C-alpha cells in the first residue's frame, strides 16, 4: 500500500465531504461504494487522522476533515489556475490578468492600465468584471480575481491595498435647481434637500464619507433613495427627486440634465485603491502592478 497521499485520494475525499453520503459520492465518482470506503480508510491511516464520523444515520466531517476539505479545495483551485496559465502560454500568450472594478474606475484608471498593458505586454490577456467593493475583496481572496479597484478604508491583512487615484467630490444638482454653480458657498445650503446616495452595502466607505461631509456642514442628510449605479443616481437627480454627491470623475460620459459643483473646499477626497493578494501565483500580476504604479 502506498504511504503517500495522491490527488485521487483528495478527489475521493472531496466527493464524500460534499455529499456526506458514501453511496452518492461513489455514484458521482463512478466507483463502487466499498472501493470508495477503502480509499477513505487508506487516507485516514496515512494521515493518522479520522476525517469522517460515520454511523447508521449520517456521515459528518471531523475537525480534521473540515481542515482538509478547505485545504484540498484551495489546492485544486491552484492546480486549475496553473493549468489555465500553461494553456495560455502554450497558445503564445504570457498569461491573463483578471480585473475587478467599480464603475468610477472605468473613467480613467482602467482604460489607462489596459492601454499600458497592450503596449508593453501585448500577449497578456485581460478580463474585466464590474463588482461591488466587498464582492471584489471576496473574489480576490478566493483567487477568482487577480486585482481589484475599490473604495474601502481597509481590507483583510492578507491583501495589499494601495491608492491609485485621488479625486474630489462633486455635488450633483438638477439643471433646474435654483442656484448657479458659481453661487455655491458651502454645503450648509442643502440641509433640507433630499439626498440620493450609493447604497451603504455597495460602498460603506463612500457612504460614511458623504455622511462626514454633511456632518462637517452641521446637518445629517435626508436620504430619499439609494442605488449601486451612477446612471440611476443621475437620472433620479435629473427628475428632481433629490441631489447627490459623487466622485468628480463620474461626471464624464453621462449626457443628462444635471449640473456638477466640485467641492474643492472640503477635506474629504474620493480615494480609489488597488487590492491584490500578498501571496499570489499569477506570474503576470507583478507586471500589471509595476505598470500601475510606475513613476513618470
General description of the model:
- The structure is a single chain.
- The chain is an alpha/beta fold and 296 residues long.
- It folds into three domains: 7-77, Arc Repressor Mutant, subunit A (Orthogonal Bundle), CATH 1.10.10.10; 93-165 and 272-292, Periplasmic binding protein-like II (D-Maltodextrin-Binding Protein, domain 2); 169-268, D-Maltodextrin-Binding Protein, domain 2 (3-Layer(aba) Sandwich).
- It has nine helices and twelve strands.
- Helix 5 links the parallel strand 3 and strand 4.
- Helices cover 39% and strands 23% of the residues.
- Helix 1 (7-19) crosses helix 2, helix 1 (7-19) packs across helix 4 (63-90) and helix 2 (22-29) packs across helix 3.
- The strands form four sheets. Strands 4-3-5-12-6 form a five-stranded mixed sheet, sandwiched between helices. Strands 10-7-11 form a three-stranded antiparallel sheet, covered by helices on one side. The chain has a two-stranded antiparallel ribbon with strand order 1-2.
Amino acid at each position: 500500500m502506498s504511504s503517500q497521499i495522491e490527488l485521487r485520494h483528495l478527489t475521493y475525499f472531496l466527493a464524500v465531504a460534499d455529499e456526506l453520503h458514501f453511496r452518492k459520492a461513489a455514484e458521482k465518482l463512478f466507483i463502487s461504494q466499498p472501493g470508495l470506503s477503502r480509499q477513505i480508510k487508506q487516507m485516514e491511516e496515512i494521515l493518522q487522522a479520522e476525517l469522517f464520523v460515520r454511523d447508521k444515520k449520517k456521515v459528518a466531517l471531523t475537525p480534521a476533515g473540515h481542515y482538509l476539505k478547505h485545504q484540498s479545495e484551495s489546492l485544486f483551485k491552484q492546480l486549475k489556475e496553473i493549468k489555465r496559465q500553461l494553456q495560455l502560454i502554450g497558445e503564445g500568450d504570457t498569461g491573463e490578468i483578471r480585473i475587478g472594478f467599480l464603475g468610477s474606475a472605468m473613467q480613467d484608471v482602467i482604460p489607462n492600465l489596459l492601454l499600458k498593458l497592450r503596449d508593453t505586454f501585448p500577449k497578456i490577456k485581460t478580463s474585466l468584471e464590474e463588482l461591488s467593493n466587498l464582492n471584489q475583496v471576496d473574489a480576490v481572496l478566493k483567487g477568482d480575481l487577480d486585482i481589484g479597484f475599490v473604495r474601502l478604508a481597509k481590507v483583510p491583512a492578507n491583501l495589499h491595498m494601495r491608492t491609485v487615484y485621488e479625486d474630489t467630490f462633486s455635488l450633483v444638482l438638477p439643471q433646474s435647481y435654483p442656484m448657479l454653480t458659481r453661487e455655491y458657498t458651502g454645503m450648509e445650503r442643502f440641509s433640507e434637500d433630499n439626498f440620493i446616495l450609493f447604497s451603504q452595502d455597495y460602498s460603506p466607505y463612500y457612504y460614511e464619507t458623504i455622511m462626514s461631509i454633511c456632518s462637517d456642514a452641521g446637518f445629517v442628510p435626508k436620504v430619499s433613495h439609494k442605488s449601486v449605479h451612477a446612471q440611476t443616481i443621475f437620472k433620479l437627480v435629473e427628475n428632481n427627486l433629490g441631489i447627490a454627491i459623487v466622485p468628480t470623475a463620474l461626471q464624464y460620459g453621462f449626457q443628462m440634465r444635471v449640473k456638477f459643483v466640485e467641492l474643492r473646499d472640503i477635506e474629504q477626497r474620493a480615494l480609489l485603491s488597488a487590492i491584490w493578494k500578498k501571496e499570489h501565483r499569477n506570474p503576470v500580476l507583478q507586471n500589471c502592478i509595476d505598470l500601475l504604479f510606475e513613476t513618470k
